[in-house]
Amino acid sequence: MRILILSQYFWPENFRVNDLSSELIARGHEVTVLTGEPNYPDGSIFPAYAADPAAFARFEGAPVYRVPIIPRGGSSLRLLLNYLSFVVSGLLLGGSRLRGQEFDAIFVFQTSPITSAIPALWLGWRKRAPVLMWVLDLWPETLSAIGVVKSRCLLSLVGAMVRMIYKRCDRILVQSRAFYANVARYAGGDEKILYFPGWPEPVFSTSGGEPEPAGELAPWQGMFKVMFAGNLGQAQDIPVIIAAADLLRDEPNLRWIIVGDGRAGADAREEVARRGLEGRVIFAGRYPIERMPSFFAAADALLVSLRDEPIWSLTIPGKVQSYLASGKPVVAMLNGEGARVIAESGGGVAGPAGDAAALAENVRTLMAMPVERRAEIGQAGRAYCQREFDRAQLVNKLEGWIEELGN
Fold this sequence. Notes:
By secondary structure, the protein is α/β, with parallel strands linked by helices. The protein has two domains: 2-199 and 390-406, Glycogen Phosphorylase B (Rossmann fold), CATH 3.40.50.2000; 204-388, Rossmann fold (3-Layer(aba) Sandwich). The protein has 15 helices and 14 strands. The strands form two sheets. Strands 3-4-2-1-5-6-7-8 form an eight-stranded mixed β-sheet, sandwiched between helices. The protein has a six-stranded parallel β-sheet with strand order 11-10-9-12-13-14, with helices on both faces. Strand 13, helix 12 (336-345) and strand 14 (348-351) form a beta-alpha-beta unit. The protein starts with a strand and ends with a helix.
């Protein structure tokens, strides 16, 4: 099949759409990508791309067309301009970039912003191709939850835009079953909504054996290491994690390792310094996804968190699948669907979002367990992940849905 993948974010940025594209290409589909210039999460255009854009014009043989955007920067205004610039560039230049090409389907990777679907709908109309959108963030609720938009009037206008987008999509894929009611409210029903969760990236496969622990963490060998990996943003509630670390400062063999960075990174470092936790909370820096298995192998527990907001209780954070696949116990500070998955898997312990004391207690519980018991928990999570989030089976479903739309 001829599939156009439209996403504001794409390789060399690290998103699961890269892996989906890779799998579709490997299955023999003619994949084309329309995306923006890479600038996530730092907020500036990647130096390697700026130096040689042609080096990023193909992904595993598939053509990648990029439209100019305003980089995210570090302010809310720049973020808004970033969102708008992709829409404008996609509408004005997307058609010319793809002139003469026909597609059997257009697939939209919709993490924030949902506005990235607007060029896809226009291209779908122009090329008479069905549009499938994979919803990973719920708008306008996400805007309210992270404090980007506070005006009820403006949120209502965004809601009207969401309604327009959902109603014009041929299929809406949701990463969590808890998304159904919210999406159906804007889409006018649930007839075209399908459950399509994320999966762990192939680098977390253990077919080649367990990875060697990351050498970068050797200075803390023998200590109990709780690792947070990924984006440091407002949604992750990093200040509460630091508060939990403060509550456990009396544990001499405990270290909190943060692998990643983001818009909240600078504030997190300041808070760690303010509390005098520099030796307890370690900022290890950002590493490519290919290195994550070795970092996870060096951890004793993997931490996932989301703020105490109703919208986040509906979400399964993308890192949950990767954490479970690693075979390490997961310690979660979140509500709702994400917590349910952790509990149902038997792969870890979950406490309420925003509760530093509960997180600290759960970490103490894991520390007190025999190593063998923690290994059993990790293996239970891995088995659940293999059963519930198998990439091959999920992509099989996606192929079937696209074929149905063509009939």
